[in-house]
Amino acid sequence: MIRLSKSCLSDLEKKAVIRVLDNEFLGMGREVNKFEGELTEYFGRPALCVSTGTAALHLALQAICVGKGDEVLVQSLTYVASFQAISATGAKPIACEVNPDTLCIDLSDAETKLTKNTKAIMPVHYSGGVGTLDEVYSFAEKHGLRVIEDAAHAFGTKYKGRKVGSFGDIACFSFDGIKNITSGEGGCVVTNDHSVIKKISDARLLGVENDSEKRASGKRSWDFDVKCQGWRYHMSDIMAAIGIIQLKRYPELALKRKKIAKIYDLLLAKSEYISPLLHNYNEVVPHIYVVRIKGLKDRNELQKHFLKKSIQIGYHYKPNHWLSIYQDKSLSLYVTESIFPELISLPLHPDISKEDVKYVVENLIKYFE
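Structure (tokenized):
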């Protein structure tokens, strides 16, 4: 089976986990502190590790005081985690259109949805691309909004020569099993806002003040105070041990992802029916490889056909304004609703070979011919 996505691990990650197990300290401790230090060096500014990418978004929103009665602009075409992180604060996610070329948030549509309650904008870096990020920040400055980048797909991507996360307001990354780097589960928040860093540092450990610093030195808090709502969102040393190795291996993993995407682009260039989501893979490190198939009628049938050929395909993502919890029957997002049924994600991970890519493309083209 050519898998759509998978964790790509070596013996180094396994040895690192065994070392932590042998140490018999599995919670948040020195390994997490070390991983945060290496991520801080990677981004060139403070990074804090948490349990998931969703937790990173939730904590970042809470740290900028987004809450009940507030609204956050976000594209509907994203994983439900983006919306759930917003609604977890008590705020309302405001579903916006996507740009049909980048599948990132459409700012012209977002502008029509501004209200006195709009507190922030959450650009989603779909598939690893970031769209027109400069324009997002200009939009935010014009309207007095905070920016929380959902960069779950975009670890390692550069925008105009700078790493995503190394600049801007707040960026949140995911390290789950199939992301550009993994720690099994996990994520991180990156920002120069020291107030946000301090708030998240405490909130990820149930709001216990200064507990992060103590755990990093192998201690724990006994006599403590709690002044804000906290969550059990910290990363464990097991996860951090995996992440440390993955970060070392990252140049190799990123190069493979880029090469695979470039091969797909080359092989699909002459197809009349299949249009890849185009990126500059010298800067973008793709998390998923997405194509749009004009006039696609039955995606489920296509998936079943490909499984018979030992190929997994998928689609990213069902629009959130169609989900029961966020449904608004008066809302119509024409671009999102017309594009989504034609989207297909093809297998992409560092363990795929060039021959695998050729086999996938041959079967895809043959199916539509």
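The mean pLDDT is 97. The CA atoms of residues 51 and 186 lie 4 Å apart.
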